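Problem 12. The chain below contains 396 residues. Write out its predicted structure in token notation.
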Amino acid sequence: MVDGTWRRVAQAAGLLDPSGVPAPTIFARMSELATRTDSINLGQGFPDTDGPAAVLEAAVAAIRGGANQYPPGRGIAPLRRAIAEHQQRRYGLDVDPDTEVLVTAGATEALTASIIALTSPGDEVVVLEPIYDSYSAAIEMAGAVRRTVRLEWPEYRLQADRLTAAVTDRTRLILLNTPHNPTGRVLDRAELELIARIAQERDLIVIADEVYEHLTFGGHPHVPIATLPGMAARTVTISSAGKTFSVTGWKIGWLHARPEIVDAVTAVKQFLTYVNGSPFQPAVATGLALPDEQIRAIGTDLAQRSALLTDGLKAAGFGVRPSDGTYFVIADAAPLGYADGAALCNDLPRLAGVVGVPVQAFAEDPSQPSSLVRFACCKRPEVIAEAASRLAAMRP
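Solution.
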């Protein structure tokens, strides 16, 4: 019998089938379905275009220049400086690149290493639901306990009474994701102030997953919780290059926090990947130093694609919540006669040649609407337009 922690981790992430056999993630399953049926893949959140040429060329130059061996454990100094300078320039945060920054194998490793480093078995971690699946797996790996706070369709606002009720004497962390995957919500300042107040009153650390920080639109600016009074010292801020620069396969992420937290997370991280992405690190430093107007243009372009997808979904008969940011748009299949979003996602390749992901995969609360589907807008406009046309054609 092959058993162990993997079973609990897989179960926490919803990756055990009824017979107890481990299953691929919902994203892997839907992408495989898209490939097998030759459907347009609006399920998994990866772009179908490359990022800024300057960033790509910097990676090529780094490879040719010999940056192909182990980098320093905390990341190369130019990237750590670029991260610190980015945080100062964009948000006014003072970050020491030598003691307060850690480069990781994507944001997923930063999140996992942080949760393992900052909790003990039995400690509780508060998360917002719908919840990205890796959070549950990381909490289980740490031996900690997940406590969820439900965000309700279609507003997906954080409610004070629910957050207060979720925090107990065993709570150590609040895991905040804004801009939020899968809902596309950008939490506003009042919601962040609520989290900050509770974190300070209960002496909690906030892990802030901000990977979509530059991809907001519709007048919904991203506000890092670390910028709120009293929060810089109790926040682990996490981001990555993959989403902003359309290089999801590079897996270059980072975090910054006060030195003793970074030391603790580094102690875990060095036994996960040790180091990673040597030639991509200087390229990401190049990306973070791009002019602000070029970064804003990336968000503006995505906003246009999000609007195109939103309009197409509405025309196809879905109920739609326009996204505040991220790669994603949430649509309600109930107007199409589907109470079960998972059933629709299984049928969509046959009905329309399009693949989405059921929001059920991000939630365990049975009161969450089961008819919701997440679609990705990080594709070329012509691909989104074709997908919208196919979806519209399936209406009776």
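Discussion. The domain at 53-290 is CATH 3.40.640.10 (Aspartate Aminotransferase; domain 2). Students who got a different answer should revisit the alignment rule from Section 12.3.
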